[in-house]
Amino acid sequence: MHADNPAQSRKAAALAAFEGLATEPGVAKPDPILVVDKVVRRFGGLTAVDVGHVEIQRGSITALIGPNGAGKTTFFNQLTGFDTADAGEWTFNGQKMNGVPAYKVARHGMVRTFQLTKALSKLTVIENMRLGAQKQRGENFFAGLIPGLWRGEEAAITQRAEDLLTRFKLIAKKDDFAGSLSGGQRKLLEMARALMVQPELVMLDEPMAGVNPALTQSLLGHVKNLREEGMTVLFVEHDMDMVRDISDWVIVMAQGAVIAEGPPHSIMSDARVIDAYLGAHHDAPLSAEEEQQQLEEAEAELAAEADADGDSTKEAGNERV
Amino acid sequence: MDWILIFSRAVEAGIGSEAVIYCLAAIGLNVQFGYTGLLNFGQAAFVAVGAYSIATTVATFGLPLFLGVGIGLVLAVLLALLLGIPTLRLRADYLAIVTIAAAEIVRLVVRAVALKDTFGGTDGLQEFAGTFYGLNPYPEGNYVIPPFIGFDHRTMWILTVGWILVIAVSLLLFLVMRSPWGRVLKAIREDEDAVRSLGKNVFSYKMQSLVIGGVIGSLAGFIFALSRSSAQADLYSTDFTFFAYTVLILGGAARILGPIVGAAIFWFLMIFVKTGLEEAINKNVINFLNVNQVGAIQYMIIGLGLILLLIYRPQGIFGDKREIALDAR
Ligand SMILES: Nc1ncnc2c1ncn2[C@@H]1O[C@H](COP(=O)(O)OP(=O)(O)OP(=O)(O)O)[C@@H](O)[C@H]1O
Ligand SMILES: [Mg+2]
């Protein structure tokens, strides 16, 4: 509530960093934690990702938005080592990260969650959490044989896991199988588990999808908290209300490329963004003749598409393995 | 019908050398499949490597038995590395295909005519178990275990060593599967991408699992060869692997006691059905079958039993029903 409240000062600091930045794609940030250059990923003839240059500001919450199929998840997969980009390089904290396997990316402090949640079903909730802790001595086979070597560490990890579970309102479920959680609870668990890694950059792929509105509010709170704790957040989200609520900066992707960047309150009025979401035909007709003309154009286009349909479905079949 | 005979034969089989061999092989599979989710369909190859290592070292090259044991363990590790390096980065089914092929290659190599001087061809190798039985502390004779079973001194010795191995290996696994190391394996079984995203080197853990399971398989091979004083290639066919899987699933995968109880029950039932049928035919209780048909009927009955088990108790004897229920979600 007070001006010197750290929560407000972190937010203010993040916003100040974006003050006066151009809204061009690839605009330079004052203190980027992640810098991406010319990343390309093709699936057969389809270019899923072709990002020229993009920077993520340290200590901020950045939203990555774009229509379905824009390439957001594929972009995440390249950056985190879950897929191999055809070209491009990127640095995290100044360290080269292209070609680094996924587990090493996570160890460097860049941790992601998945759009389709990956709860480890037959492990309990608390075991899911413990797994996230890094550099565990008991994860060596020979040390694992001697409980005395890892008991103490395990207790400390459990304590940290329980604190997080309490924050995420999952503590009552701690001894249940993760597979018995609801879809929304799994989203929460996955986010909490990612935090067990103690990352510097958290990359969340649609963390709010399928979570009920009441819970969404608390999830938003958690995400804001991450920034207060000094973490950087990059998240994918479709709901613009949420994006406006929590993000400091928004990056827009369409057809694999970053097409615009900007502050959350004005980004949706950017012409390029409107084009991307609504297509090129969103302009309202100015006169009756123009309306008639647009209608004819649209009909002609539809007819042409219907003709081409037979071929294009075949191609689509080839692209998907 | 002589029920005492039927029961004593069945109980003897349930704790006999077959039970030990399949138990060890299934414990290896339990590490790989039960805990890590790796589909190794070539466990027979690891067993063959164990059996032929001691047989070849002693019978062909005249070197000491314990050197053969060491060679067997090393070769099992090498075989696991050889199979794992190209396949563990790929999807799970590739390992299954590669291991099943590798097992056949191993079997065909040791039975090859061209290598008859080394591996003995289809006759296999004999006369290598002398050192082992020389250490036998049981004086010659028959040992009756009340109420009605009994073994000779050689069997007593191999069973003692075999069950001590089973207990030792199970204790080690009990310890390590409760540790953070075991947690990583179980997590990989559930979803390896999630484990990668948490900074664990999945490939390394899968390799460790494959190696450990393979080495335990080679222990089964040592017991197999020593108990028969013979190593014979055709005993290590894919049937062996599938029976070991049966034992594992019967007892309950990802449970320490699963393979032990599974092996005991599997061999008890096999011999119970077999001896029971033979007795019934000999005593004319059943007169529409002859003794030569028992083998086939035995497998049909056991197969039917397994199908019923999978329908009514899919988690196996020791499994947790709640885990199976999760799969439906
Ligand atoms: N493994 C793959 N093989 C072939 N095409 C793929 C593959 N993965 C993604 N694509 C294609 O790449 C494009 C981008 O997909 P991606 O999942 O990155 O979209 P997205 O922006 O995350 O969409 P959404 O908002 O719906 O999650 C899509 O056209 C998709 O069909
Ligand atoms: Mg996506």
TrEMBL record, chain A:
SUPFAM superfamilies for this protein: P-loop containing nucleoside triphosphate hydrolases
Basic and acidic residues biased stretches: 311-321
Residue ranges the record marks as coiled coil: none
GO CC entries: plasma membrane
Source organism, top-level taxon: Bacteria
Domain ABC transporter, residue spans: 34-280
Positions with biased composition (Acidic residues): 288-310
Keyword Lipoprotein attributed: no
Alphabetical list of Pfam families matching this protein: ABC_tran (PF00005), BCA_ABC_TP_C (PF12399)
GO molecular function annotation: ATP binding; ATP hydrolysis activity
Region (Disordered): 285-321
Keywords per UniProt: ATP-binding, Nucleotide-binding, Transport
Name listed for the protein in its UniProt record: ABC transporter domain-containing protein
Organism: Sinosporangium siamense
TrEMBL record, chain B:
Membrane topology, from the record: Multi-pass membrane protein
Coiled-coil annotated spans: none
Keywords noted in UniProt: Cell membrane, Membrane, Transmembrane, Transmembrane helix
Keyword Cell membrane: yes
A Pfam family assignment: BPD_transp_2
Record-annotated membrane-spanning stretches: 6-31, 38-55, 61-82, 94-114, 156-176, 210-230, 242-273, 294-312
One GO location term (cellular component): plasma membrane
Localization: Cell membrane
Main subcellular location of this protein, as a coarse class: membrane
Signal peptide boundaries: none
Single GO term (MF): branched-chain amino acid transmembrane transporter activity
Family matches, as InterPro entries: ABC_transp_permease (IPR001851), LivM-like (IPR043428)
Domain of life per record: Bacteria
Annotated protein name in UniProt: Branched-chain amino acid ABC transporter permease
